[in-house]
Amino acid sequence: MEKRPNPEQILKQVQKEEQKAKTGKLKIYLGAAPGVGKTYAMLKDALAKRATGLDVIVGIVESHGREDINTFLKELTVMPRQTIQYRGNTLFDFDLDSALSRNPGLILIDEMAHTNAPGLRHSKRWQDIKELIDRGIDVYTTLNVQHIESVNDIVSQIIGAPVKETVPDSMLEIAETIELIDLPTEELLKRLEEGKVYIPEQSEWAKAHFFKKSNLTALRELALRITAERVSSQVLLYRQDQGIKRIWAIQEKILVCVGPKPEALKLIRTAKRIATNLHAKWIAVYVNTPTLQAHEQDRNNAIQYLRLAEQLGAETRVLSGTDIAEEILYFGREQNVTQIIVWKEIRSRFKEIIFLSLADKMVRYSGDINIYVITGQRERLSTPSPSMTKLVKKPSWKVYLISTLILSIATLINFVFYDYFNTYNLIMIYLLAVSGIALFGQTGPALLSAILSIILFEVFFVPDFLSTFSLNNGPQILTLITIGIVTYTISHLSLLAQRQTESARFYERQTSALYTLNRQLASTRGIDKLIETGTQYIAELFDCEVSLLWAEHGQLHFKGKGDLERKLDQKEQGIIQWVYDLGQIAGFGTNTLPLSDTLYLPLSGAQSTLGVLSVRPKTRELFSSEQMQLLTACTHQLALALEVDQHQSDTQEKERQQHSDKLQNALLQSVSHDLRTPVASVLGIAGTLIEMGEKIDKKKAKKYAESIYFEAEQLNRLINNLFQIAYLETEEIHLQKKSYEFTEIIHSVLSGFSKKMDKRTLNIDIPVDFPPIPLDKPLIEATIINLIDNAIKFTKPHTSITIKLEKNATHAIFTIADEGPGIMIDEVDKLFEKFYRGRLLSTERGLGLGLAICHRVINAHGGKIWAENRPEGGAVFIFALPLEKSSE
Questions:
Q1: Of the N and C termini of the chain, which has fewer Cβ atoms inside 10 Å?
Q2: Cβ burial 498-508 (10 Å sphere, 16+ → b, else e)
């Protein structure tokens, strides 16, 4: 019963080992709650690793004031943390770039689910860890069970509050080791009382909310279960990789053998009860054998029973092979199955001796797998199911006609060579003819031709055959039996080969069809386009009329080009709603509402049912089981593609809404401040003028008037920026280009900056002979004003701002450099976004629109604008405008 290793599995294992060699190893210390000792265990193991000579560093570890953790940290190399300025606060976080530059053998990173400070490369710490292991660095990290994404809903129900920081399950799957750090609930509560988990102030709050005995007990069970499932998966993978056939009965796993007969229902229900009592996983398996008895009716019945098992919670598989017992036992050993449930019909003693049943054969070769045999009398179906009426095609009359023609030719050949061949040679001619007929793979014509060949031989080539032929004539009887056995064997093997070829071709077609559909869907975006692509492909593949009913707000309606004008009657609407609600196939060719002329399949995605696929065959022929499998697979593929696209659309819409809300809030906050400041200043000065009246001298009155003008000008610039950014984004920019001297533009711009410069020095370096530049003067002036205004905001008085103009062969390059704090690395790509205000901004004025306007104006001119840091300190903004092409 042993099988040779699967080459594909060996190749996958080799590729897996090669991938592992390129990446680092991840070890996760998993706990049910804070305080169980994850960080302590991680640091202790790290010290042991360092003792072996490995380069071990601490990326980031939070001690929370615990002395035992601080003691460990003093013995290890701790990386300096990165400093981030955010909204006036100084934050310290893990420095990923420094860790990559150091390239240690092992790095320790605490709190895997932590959210990074704004401005870092990754928003989540687990993303930092993923990059580290992708670059070949081993990582030790800690994780609490409540932060695992797949159990987030369960944890929220347990603790009565949402958990916002989560880690995707894929990180657990790539982990080399997951070590459970467990602590009894009573001991953990004791540690909390002693202040070994949090500082006293935090301990009181934690005890009142999270650290309840019921919560901790439930989370502990969840952590144990997740770890057990992880270990179980590792055991299964190890057994498959090593080719271990012996069963390891670590936990119960049940396999039920599903056949095409009604007793499969009893087997499935029995397996469900046993699996429920043992809290075990169970698998329902059907073996599709390409034999003479493998009718369409049998396969269709078996598929229906597998669907029932799937509804009851089983994992279902369809295997392919010639020996049912061998395939099931091989699969069972591969999946580490401990119990197999199989049916055995009660038969006569004679049949038991002559014909070995499936149950007996499995018991004989089961080894260490327990076989549960369910016995009984086989039920007989009086009439076949209305959905299962298509049987194997009967032999065609053409085959009988061709067989008669071949035998006639063989007889003619024997007449020609009768005087030259002996009797045995003539028999060989007939045997050759019968063997050729048997290659058609149809038993009826083959056996009939065998009998006819004997009769023709006896009548035409055996003298006095009536007097010589008798049951006592041994050679003639032996000849008849030999030809019959050879004929039947050849026809049987030929049919078996045809079935195996058809099966191989079907799986090849299925793989090719699914690959083609997947490729087409992968290159398509948008729900409407996906529906059009998917329905058109399925319609061409199965020669059917295909349409799709899409669910929106609980209502199903046709979507796509097909069948848009078709009206459904009340009965069809009921069928479609039933399919959508229950997620089951119904209609033509099924056991549910089979009188309908249309087959309805649910578009079941990973999370929900998206709609219903309507398939109407152009002929009344039922789908075969292979076609149904392929149709179901295509439907599922289409549903997954639609679900992914819908999820992406929802995510993008959500992100757009969040971005819009963020922009609106930023706009409201900035506008309210920028409006309030100049208005308040103007009101204050105007109030002073009103109260003081004629007591104010002309010099002071002029100063007040200048202040009012300055604030009004700031307010005017704010309004202009708002109108300008709206215009630049919603209207096509029509440039009014003329050639201008840049010196003229600079002087025009600087005339309004005398007060704002506030003791700053302005250096201008523009060559006297600089050629005129084609540009839209008002827009370029607004650009330079915004750049100078930006430099003033980020610099202090008594510093200098340098304006420089130079050119190369094709462009004029304008530079504004300052002596401010410079640009943070993560801000370089954000500076020209709307409403983005640098974190190092020293004033609260401004909406963050100036640089966004500059970017759009320069792009409209066909130029380029960028920013960088000066080597001597400060920032420099540069834009390049194309020069006029000289005519030659």
A1: C
A2: ebbeebeebee
- For position 15, what pLDDT does the model report? 61
- pLDDT for residue 109: 93
Cα–Cα distance list, 685 to 291, 675, 692, 704 (Å): 101, 16, 10, 6
Buried b (16+ CB within 10 A) or exposed e, 145-156: bbbbeebbeebe
Q: Is the dihedral of CA 832, 833, 835, 837 positive or negative?
A: negative
Predicted local confidence at residue 257, as pLDDT: 92
pLDDT at 383: 39
| Secondary-structure breakdown of the chain: helix, strand, coil percentages, each rounded to the nearest 5 | 50, 15, 30
pLDDT (mean) for 678-684: 72
The string of pLDDT tens digits covering residues 96-132 is 989 998 899 999 999 898 888 887 888 889 989 999 9
Cβ atoms 22, 136 nearer than 8 A:
yes
Phi, then psi, of 815 in degrees rounded to 5: -130, 135
Which pLDDT belongs to residue 47?
Answer: 92
The string of pLDDT tens digits covering residues 407-464 is: 888 888 888 887 777 766 777 787 788 777 777 767 677 777 777 877 787 777 766 5
CA-wise closest residue to 254 among 237, 269, 275: 275
Burial classification of residue 606, based on how many CB atoms lie within 10 Å of its CB (0-12 exposed, 13-18 middle, 19 or more buried): exposed
Q: Please, which pLDDT band fits residue 67 given cuts at 50, 70 and 90? A: confident
Residue 499 has pLDDT above 70, yes or no: no
Tokens in use for 259? 């056949």
Q: What is the pLDDT of residue 296?
A: 60
> Cβ of 448: how many Cβ atoms within 10 Å?
20
Cβ atoms of 60 and 96 within 8 Å: the answer is no
Determine the 3-state secondary structure of 341 from DSSP. Answer: strand
CA angle 257/262/267 to nearest 5° reads 35
**Residue 108 exposed, middle or buried by CB count within 10 Å (0-12, 13-18, 19+):** buried
Q: Model pTM?
A: 0.42
What does the pLDDT read at residue 141? 94
Half-sphere exposure of 532 (CA within 13 A, CB side): 10
For residues 503 and 319, the answer to whether their CB atoms sit within 8 Å is no
Mean pLDDT of 330-334: 85
CA pair distance 753, 751, nearest whole angstrom: 6
Which residue is it, tokens 């990582």?
A: 139
Using CA of residue 766, residue 771, residue 775, residue 778, what is the dihedral sign? Answer: positive
Q: What would the two tokens of residue 105 be? A: 């053998």
Q: Supply the Cα-derived Rg of the chain in whole angstroms.
A: 41
DSSP 747-796: HHHHTT-TTTTTT-EEEEE--TTPPPEEE-HHHHHHHHHHHHHHHHHTS-
Among residues 39, 91, 92, 34, which one has the least CA distance to residue 67?
A: 39
Give long-range contacts, CB 8 A cutoff, 24+ apart: 839-846.
839/85, 839/86, 839/87, 839/119, 840/85, 840/794, 841/793, 841/794, 842/793, 842/794, 842/796, 843/793, 844/673, 845/673, 845/674, 845/677, 845/714, 845/793, 846/670, 846/674, 846/789, 846/793
Question: What pLDDT, on a 0 to 100 scale, did the predictor assign at position 564?
Answer: 43
User: Mean pLDDT score of the chain, rounded to an integer?
Assistant: 77
Report how far residue 829's alpha carbon sits from residue 680's, in angstroms, rounded to the nearest whole number.
35
Q: Do the beta carbons of residue 71 and residue 52 sit within 8 Å?
A: no
Helix (H) or strand (E) holding 92: strand 89-93
Q: Which of 559, 484, 557 is nearest to 527 (CA)?
A: 559
Run of H or E including 450: helix 443-461
- 736/781 Cα distance (integer angstroms): 13
Distance from C-alpha of 486 to C-alpha of 493, rounded to nearest angstrom: 10
User: Could you identify the residue written with the tokens 């398509």?
Assistant: 524
